[in-house]
């Protein structure tokens, strides 16, 4: 099953409301409103698409790519980010992300400094803070309890 945003004028198969989603099952298209969107096991889907990453072989985390895929499927319309705090000397940055879409408005914060960032991206701590903020807001938007993989520092 694949769920996409409905781009044509359709009616929900379960009620009279305008369809928000197009549901593809075995090549056939169905339509649903926000309320009648079919439940899917998110964890299973993320796992099958390679978006669940295990830290130290045990702690499951969700990739940012996986979260972005899901928010776009779930009617996201706007992603806004803003630097709330930035200390150039200690290279510490806090970013706020606000997501707006069919499910409402959700805010998340992300922070980063070279100490809390993997070596490969240490110089890009502002971008790390931004993607952490987006990941957190996306988790609230989607109702996903799993930590995002970019919130974890592996020391590599
Ligand atoms: Zn409906």
Q: Strand count, sense and closure of the main sheet?
A: 3 strands, antiparallel
Radius of gyration: 18 Å
Question: Based on CA inertia axes, which overall geometry fits?
Answer: elongated
Number of domains: 2
The helix-and-strand class reads: alpha+beta
Number of helices: 3
Q: Which small-molecule species are bound to the chains here?
A: zinc ion
Low-confidence stretches: none
> Order of strands in the sheet with the most strands?
1-2-3
User: Roughly what fraction of the amino acids lie in strands?
Assistant: 25-35%
Share of residues in helices: 10-25%
Quantity of strands, as a count:
8
Structure overview:
This protein has 3 helices and 8 strands. The chain has 156 residues and is of the alpha+beta class. It folds into 2 domains: 1-40, no CATH class; 42-151, no CATH class. Strands 1-2-3 form a 3-stranded antiparallel beta sheet, with no helix packed on it. A 3-stranded antiparallel beta sheet has the order 6-7-8. Strands 4-5 form a two-stranded antiparallel ribbon. The chain is elongated and about 60 Å long. Zinc ion binds next to loops.
